[in-house]
Design brief:
Layout lengths: L2 H4 L18 H34 L14 H14 L4 H13 L3 H14 L4 H13 L3 H14 L4 H12 L6 H14 L4 H16 L1
């Protein structure tokens, strides 16, 4: 048996009977491919971690919500004032401007426009309620009470002005608890299924706990 036969299945030998180095090209290629695949997996994993961290830090909605266009108070205020210059009797512009001023902490300015709007629409219950709430916000509590009472006079079964009159009494200094209770109970009586009735019950419970 020759040396070539004896070494079959083992390392190849050359013509001189000496061991020849095994081919390594195929193994090198496989190693390179494996290294590339592993690197790609690591990179993808790193990107996923970064995206998840960004997603959690910004909130789940921020990445996907469409950009929303917000109304700029300054531009809207300028628009309403321009409308009123062209038409001083534009009640709708008065109301928008008054609401805008009230919602940006300028209750005293808002009151002036509510007064003009009320003069133009004296029987508007919703307007008087909005006016009364702005007066409350500005600390004009007696004037607010007048507006709420006038709204109740115009619409005795409307629970909204009744509720806010009760709230006015409850927040008085000192609190007028008995008057507040009377208004809250009246809300429940005139509109038992309304949202204001539910809120009135909550306020009554709060008064009971405080007493």
């Amino acid at each position: 048996m020759t040396s070539r036969t004896r070494n079959r299945g083992r390392h190849p030998v050359d013509d001189r009977g000496e061991y020849a180095p095994a081919p390594r090209r195929r193994h090198s290629r496989l190693f390179v491919i494996l290294a590339v695949v592993v690197s790609a997996v690591l990179v993808i994993g790193l990107i996923e971690v970064v995206l998840l961290d960004l997603f959690s830090s910004r909130g789940s909605d921020d990445l996907f919500l469409q950009p929303q266009i917000a109304v700029t108070p300054g531009s809207q205020e300028a628009e309403m004032r321009a409308r009123l210059q062209e038409n001083p009797d534009d009640v709708n512009a008065m109301l928008v401007l008054a609401d805008l001023l009230a919602n940006t902490g300028r209750a005293s300015e808002a009151v002036q426009w509510y007064e003009k709007a009320v003069q133009a629409r004296p029987d508007d219950v919703g307007l008087r309620v909005a006016f009364g709430r702005t007066l409350m916000q500005g600390g004009y509590r007696l004037d607010a009470e007048i507006q709420f009472k006038k709204a109740i006079e115009l619409a005795p079964t409307n629970p909204e002005p009744i509720f806010f009159l009760g709230q006015l009494y409850q927040e008085s200094d000192p609190p007028r608890e008995s008057d507040a209770r009377a208004q809250y109970e009246r809300v429940i009586e005139v509109a038992p299924e309304s949202v204001y009735a539910q809120r009135a019950k909550e306020q009554l419970d709060a008064l009971d706990r405080a007493s």
